[in-house]
Amino acid sequence: MKTLLLPILFLGATLGLRAEDGHRLWLRPHATTPVTVVAPTTSSALLATAKRELQQGWQGSAGTTVTLTLKKDKAIKYDGFRLNAQGVQASTERGILYGVFELLRRQQTGQAPAAGLSNPSYEHRLLNHWDNPDGSVERGYAGPSIFWRKDSALVVTSRDKTLWQEYARANASIGINGSVLNNVNASPLILSAEYLGRVKAIADVLRPYGVKAYLSVKFSSPVLLGGLKTADPLDPAVIKWWRGKAKEIYQQVPDFGGFLVKASSEGQPGPQDYGRTHADGANMLADVLKPHGGLVMWRAFVYSPSDKDRAKQAYNEFVPLDGKFRDNVIIQVKNGPVDFQPREPFSPLFGALKKTAVMPEFQITQEYLGHAIDLAYLAPLWEECLQSDTYQAGPGSTVARCTDGSVYRQAHSAMAGVSNVGLDTNWTGHDFAQANWYAFGRLAWNSNIKSAQIAEEWLKQTFQNAAGTNQPATSAADWNAKFLTPVTQLMLASREAIVDYSMPLGLHHIMSATHGHYGPGPWWAPPGMRADWTPPYYHQAATNGVGFGRTKTGSDAVSQYHEPLASQFNNPATCPDAYLLWFHHLPWDFKMKSGRTLWDELALHYDHGVQQVRQFQRTWDQAQPYVDAERFGVMQNKLRTQSGNAVVWKDACLLYFQQFSRMPIPAAVEPPMHTLEALIANDTPPRPPRQP
Amino acid sequence: MKTLLLPILFLGATLGLRAEDGHRLWLRPHATTPVTVVAPTTSSALLATAKRELQQGWQGSAGTTVTLTLKKDKAIKYDGFRLNAQGVQASTERGILYGVFELLRRQQTGQAPAAGLSNPSYEHRLLNHWDNPDGSVERGYAGPSIFWRKDSALVVTSRDKTLWQEYARANASIGINGSVLNNVNASPLILSAEYLGRVKAIADVLRPYGVKAYLSVKFSSPVLLGGLKTADPLDPAVIKWWRGKAKEIYQQVPDFGGFLVKASSEGQPGPQDYGRTHADGANMLADVLKPHGGLVMWRAFVYSPSDKDRAKQAYNEFVPLDGKFRDNVIIQVKNGPVDFQPREPFSPLFGALKKTAVMPEFQITQEYLGHAIDLAYLAPLWEECLQSDTYQAGPGSTVARCTDGSVYRQAHSAMAGVSNVGLDTNWTGHDFAQANWYAFGRLAWNSNIKSAQIAEEWLKQTFQNAAGTNQPATSAADWNAKFLTPVTQLMLASREAIVDYSMPLGLHHIMSATHGHYGPGPWWAPPGMRADWTPPYYHQAATNGVGFGRTKTGSDAVSQYHEPLASQFNNPATCPDAYLLWFHHLPWDFKMKSGRTLWDELALHYDHGVQQVRQFQRTWDQAQPYVDAERFGVMQNKLRTQSGNAVVWKDACLLYFQQFSRMPIPAAVEPPMHTLEALIANDTPPRPPRQP
């Protein structure tokens, strides 16, 4: 029955008969007009894709002729393109495809067809999938992997291919040109011949959409998979094993992108196990891939359980290695120095590595921002990081400019986002989480686009003319006023609301691990757990105050930042409120810029977060006439659950910290509706996180 | 160890060293002055109690002589008393004791020593304990029974006696003169020789405090305990068995008060099992007890699973029997026609039985008002019922006057309250639930005292000069302004807040039975459950409206009320909002007196309830300086939990009813923070309630 039913289901999807279940993402079907496409060749699969997209999506004047022109042009960088009166011009076939999608996007979002050049900020725009060979997804909240199956079935079905194609098309539409197909906590299995067969099948489906396949590799694969006695990167047998493996991969996937490596981190093996440096390890793999044109993305996410300040360690380990990496190595650095928190200052490695290619890693999946339950539009978080000025090469040395080749020479540039995609019908588990996939692609293409523009683009493509609503009868002005504007505002405020109700004023890492980092856990510290995995390590709450002292008289993490930031962060009077408790341990009655005590300010922030979510609920409720019943109801329920979660966060943190502050909760704050005892009891006996 | 430790603990208690754990109730120790007591005799245990209380509690001028005078006086009713310059005068020893407690109460609460007469409204002022021989308490939220033990141990310990004495003293201090020692769902065991031995022990401890012992009896005891073939009340063998049993009881307890009977109700056996009437059954037992001076309290709480309106049945069954009961039978009628809901109109039996003694039954234990978690001061509920005008003998025929002998001749009058007492240190599980025990006693003594006065009396005795606070340094004016006034207001508003967040506008019986009637369950209707035990039977929510139609065109329950009430209730324009959905099934857009739709009004009531609890929290937080740390913290946590419960009620009911109303929740209402799905899922698979 199953095999008989599937083709029918997918036929429905192809004809646009599918309900508004979110599966079509921002590429929902719409009325089109005929277009003539002139392409330079008919043999290219990529150009065929471009042509098909134009024909299936054209909304311009009927009978227009669009010419696709492949032509070298010094002004066009990487896969950039030019739009002109004739159509699209580019240096690469990918560039043509991206130009076509830009044309269609402008039509769909009601923008004038602009002539001009569009170059990507980054050469490589990558999704990192934390997908395991058993089909599970680490920090995945949208169902199992789209690439791997629980039963380790490696046979490729037509359903697999359809899904991969839809996935590749979505990526192409926003300029994403690479996918790391498996978890950074990598299984050695991925490099086995059997799994490489499936990698080839995936790569074959992604290729016509310009998406390259990459793999995460386990550094000890030569031992675990190859049967060698060592994985020492300087050992000739090890090098030989990797060379053979690379050759095997490139035979299957000629345009294979390269390796992503998490080494010597959180129990993962690495070169340090053999007395070698990160440079020794990365360079060995880089040398192996070099003849094939492959890249090594080497993660800087390293810290030891014994160090006094986890936030300092990546900097301490990697800065001394600056200049020692091959030019096809890129150091992949998380946006902040700890771990994808709702808010962190930028990682001090940005701009500090001056002779090494560095790429930002963002987390699209909402590990610390409400999973697929809470609404968190993340573009503002990423924009905040990318536009942060490091001052490392003078004012204006933003994180974006320090990583895209503008400030330092980089043979390659890239941006990575940890994907939020899974087998759920709507791909991301949460309809609005699709906006984060979209925004990541758009920002990787152009790190200067504003979050608001991205949100509007996405909302228009994702919700305009939703089935069952009175659109398109509704006027555009009405839709803009009653849906687009308020919902854009909701999206733009959503991340700050989460910061407020979970970790305001620079607090960080105070979630419980019991519920997979969803809820609060300032108390969370199971016996024997390494301290730097527990919230008390980060909040340092005591009767004398709260916050992590990272000033010059503390851990001195401030000194990893270039002046004037080091001095600014070091002084509580000049440190931005948003980072205050990140850098300072301050007494509860510390007088804030507002004139309030730190305790009152903290309580008001928590309460404001709660009230914000309630406003989001009202905004969404009022948007009901403009949304299909299916997505309206799902989102309404998710916002309700988020509203409850916000209160749990507020109550848990205020009641926990109040034990130390011994100050009353201000009367303006909504009184707790949970007891600390019940909240801790609900945070069931913690199990230690996955160990290597 | 245990037996060694106990006497020490109780010594501490005796000396007033006990912390503010609530065990001393409203009888907390305080500084006293010497007093000389002149008593008419030294051989009376009751007078000895009175003398001891005066000596242990006197706060008047040092060296005063108080004379206790036993003297017949036609103006003194029952156990009433006169206070005069010399002391206390009464017709009975109990009257002396009550006068002494009144003297001491006036001293403690700062009232002038008033001369004058004080007569009780009711002759018998009774607590009904729903305690089972296995130590459990039906609808008890304060631990196991103080009378019976889980292991059926019938041996009486000195700890038992101390506790019973403390219990008796508390009752005496507020005029309660009888206790039914076991559950109305009675075990036949209670009449066995073994259990009667313990009944005697209890009665012996209660007697010096003027508290008589009563028992609930199972109507089929002659079969279950006596081994007879029948319990037919007209069967001579049955009558003989009861006569023998009565004799046995009175040999052990010469002042035994009588029987409480729940017959032919909710599966309990009764005279109807043998084709006899309630009158046949009650009169047989009344005849048996008459020679000993005992009473029969026969409950009118009867309803069949098949009737169309449970609210009408007690009236239908008992009104035809009016005048057929012996004069030592009292029909015990719950305040409302259904079952102790947060709000009901008064039972139409009040005033309708004109030739039969009737007594009101109130529920002190908070079965439907938040157990021992939520704060519900119940005096306003009881006051509302007692002051309701039945019009049955013209205007002014209040429930109080129809039951205390003022309107109809009654050989005996009584009021019963289902006790909230258990083994918990503070007796009632919730510090403020003590106020309900207190208020019940005070209202049974004088049904005209205002709820506010009772609250103030109780607060003064219970919280003034709390340990660890800055009292008595604080001025009385300050204490009144910062503690007494706001906390009295809190208490007075507490029951209406519960009505608002659980069952406003006349809704009733829409709680879930899964959590023992604590939380909401408008959906609660397990397969096979008798309809009149499920909320949909009561709320009748549908797309066409909500509410139980009890008008003349509906079940016609309105006609059980005397005019002008019948007409007033029958017309939605004149029916008070508070009873609207009790009597009417109305469309969701019905226009209320406020001009709002029924749906909006309902939603605003639910929200108001939630906001009220948050105000209670703020009031309590601000009262912190005036409360000992122990009771402050416990209450603060309970209010937090109540606050969460209020939101659960609001969300559950609004989301459930919204399925039918299909109207938006008004923007002024706090948006839900739970989903209906989660709320129903949390209401775990219901188990059928206890069956006979």
Concise overview:
Two copies of one chain form a homodimer. The first copy, chain A, is of the alpha/beta class. Chain A is built from 20 helices and 13 strands.
Cα-atom radius of gyration of chain A: 25 Å
Count helical runs of chain A: 20
* Helical residues, percent of chain A: 25-40%
Structural class of chain A: alpha/beta
The overall pLDDT average of chain A reads 94
Low-confidence stretches of chain A: 1-17, 686-692
- Net shape of chain A: globular
Which helices and strands, and how do they pair?
The structure is a homodimer of 692-residue chains.
Chain A: H1 2-14, E1 35-38, H2 45-57, E2 64-70, E3 81-83, E4 87-90, H3 93-108, E5 116-118, E6 124-128, H4 158-173, E7 178-180, H5 193-206, E8 212-217, H6 221-224, H7 236-252, E9 258-261, H8 278-289, E10 295-299, H9 313-318, E11 329-334, E12 358-363, H10 379-386, H11 399-403, E13 414-418, H12 434-445, H13 451-463, H14 476-502, H15 535-539, H16 565-570, H17 580-583, H18 598-622, H19 629-661, H20 676-682
Parallel strand pairs in A: 1-2, 2-4, 6-7, 6-13, 7-8, 8-9, 9-10, 10-11, 11-12, 12-13
Antiparallel strand pairs in A: 3-4, 3-5
Helix pairs in contact in A: 2-3, 4-5, 7-8, 12-13, 13-14, 14-18, 18-19
